[in-house]
Amino acid sequence: MHSVFFFFVFQKIDGKALLTLTKDQIIDLTGMKVGPSLKIYDLIQQLKIKINPAQERMKASLKKLL
What we know:
By secondary structure, the chain is an all-alpha fold. It has a single domain, classed as Transcription Factor, Ets-1 (DNA polymerase, domain 1, Orthogonal Bundle). Helix content is 79%, strand content 0%.
């Protein structure tokens, strides 16, 4: 996981950009297998919920309806 850090630094991904990354973008950025990239994506989603829980709950409930 330590080497993943360098992928994000090299691509100049800051905190704001990190929160907007999609699963596909993370896979492309890291050049990794899907499993580790999805773990990173899930951690980003958890971070988003902690940052703005009401907004993320609303998005999650809308996704369930669609």
